[in-house]
From TrEMBL:
Residues 1-12 have a biased composition (Acidic residues). This is Bifunctional oligoribonuclease/PAP phosphatase NrnA. Residues 46-186 form the DDH domain. SUPFAM superfamilies: DHH phosphoesterases (SSF64182). The lineage of its organism: Archaea, Methanobacteriati, Methanobacteriota, Stenosarchaea group, Halobacteria. One of its GO terms (molecular function) is nucleic acid binding. InterPro entries: DDH_dom, DHH_sf, DHHA1_dom, Oligoribo/pAp-PDE_c-di-AMP_PDE. Residues 246-332 form the DHHA1 domain. It comes from the Archaea. Residues 1-29 are annotated as: Disordered.
Amino acid sequence: MQQHDETEEGSADESTTGRPPISPLDPATGRAQELHDLLAGDEALTVVCHDNPDPDCLASALALSELAADAGIEDVVLCYGGDISHQQNRAFVNLLELDLEPFEPGLLSDRLVAFVDHSVPGENNDVPAETAIDVVIDHHPAESVEARFVDRREDAGATATILTEYVRALDLDLAGRLATALLFAIRRETLGFLRGVTAAEHEAAAVLHPYADAETLRRLASPPVTGATADALGTAIENREIRGAVCISHVGRTGERDALPQAADYLVELEGVGTAVVFGIVEDTIELSGRTTDSRVHIGEVLSDAFDDVGSAGGHREMSGGQVPLGLFADAATDERLVAFVEDIVTDRLVEGMNLPEDEADEG
């Protein structure tokens, strides 16, 4: 880790670093050094991404691996559960040449274990619930978070923002893919600095921008969309129901899990709609994605209240997700019957939980 000479005021001289000074009293500096010291005491690290990782999770994992390397850890593994199926997530992995491995329990043995962008074993990951975690860095709501090092900030717009603070405080090299990954992750997580953004995201972007590759950012922003994803989006648009200012829709059975948040992002922008929830059957699970621009609605709490007794759901005020196992109903005679059953149950729970009109509104 590089060290800077300090000015009389106690901060690094901008003229020698080319970057704005960081106050030694900045809390991020202390937390970053604390994490660095913890990592320096070990030889191997497994960074566990949450299931179906997005750019925020992937960029944060990359940044933590760079921090671990700076602390002297040569054996760093980045792993994930589920699939990387969203076209933007696949482009992120390919263009930034991320080295990822599918999660397996053996990656938890005799190694430090870190979570980024999630925080609880067994929730949105395949890590056994009893596993001791060493590092947690996250910005999602959660309960019973335990680790040797925890930095969980629900007010942060992205986990990548927190990692940017650490990288900046420890003066790690941002050249190359690291700045590009972190900047794109912050942009994507905040929908272009429009959703859940704080001053910290703008400050992080200012630090990252001079080092990010503009062409890679452009390619990441507009990856090609598969025909299956386009079909799922079309199905969600066709199946939409408007109840008050809430749009509820489904994509039926699909292999395009990541089409659900894309559909929710689109439907919440419809005229007169402030909240959108899209669900679909993916293998043997009902997947849900929610979005809201209505300041009166906390969509994370809405999904949690509606589905936590039968699955797991939750998230931020403006964006959330959930999973409900189908159990015995997964063996329903036909997809048509199963989809109709799921549509009725999910819609009824949302209508009751949000106190919505019983009948679909007239959009005409």
